[in-house]
């Protein structure tokens, strides 16, 4: 029994000595978990900055003069057929843009939610187009005619339209992810653009009335009439709006990088679609670079 107690005492002494010689590992103090944690940039707070970039403008003029032709042919059997004509084309142009932004970030763990307002000015971003279409409309629907009468309408439309987007403001909601020094984000919101829009159309209408008769023996004879002008459906109409506002929506993707402390750089792509103004619809694709500061 005395030998057993002595052996146990010696073993305890050796174990204590070995424990005293062991290095002081971080895991014993809870420091190991801290070593694996991610160093995060604090994206929370107000921010402000400026941006500049490139814009591709796609303007759809295909229905721009429909309102004018409907007015010219109002109360006429020609209004229905001519309202379906695509007299003008879609056009594209490019320009530079520059402006600023201001917003507020709210951060929960790695998620960053933002509300942001932007302003963009477009440098001479104007598009225009013109076109002519001619067609003979025979016995248009809704017309009342005597038996054997055929009415032929030779209609020629010549039109032109132009649109210039001057500037734009947006209010966007953003959803971002805290990736350390990087924050990728997506956004969507409302847009209001200021633009000049004009359109004009000239119509020229002539009519020829043909008469078909059948005699007692069943022989059919068609007498062709002569072309004559129709002043009531011939004329010119135009419309111009300066500094008119168009509402729309915007969406896109971006990436921000924390350069130092509150200073950050960003790059983004933005798609904007405005509601039609005088049947003219404008769509923008913006690519931007920006610099800002978060307070």
UniProtKB/TrEMBL annotation:
User: Which superkingdom is the protein from?
Assistant: Bacteria
* SUPFAM superfamilies for this protein: OMPA-like
Q: Sorted alphabetically, which InterPro entries does this protein's record hold? A: Beta-barrel_OMP, OMP-like, OMP/PagP_B-barrel
Assigned keywords, A-Z: Cell outer membrane, Membrane, Signal
- Where in or outside the cell? Cell outer membrane
Q: Which Gene3D superfamilies match?
A: 2.40.160.20
- Similarity comment: Belongs to the Omp25/RopB family.
Protein name (record) = Outer membrane immunogenic protein
Organism (species): Bradyrhizobium yuanmingense
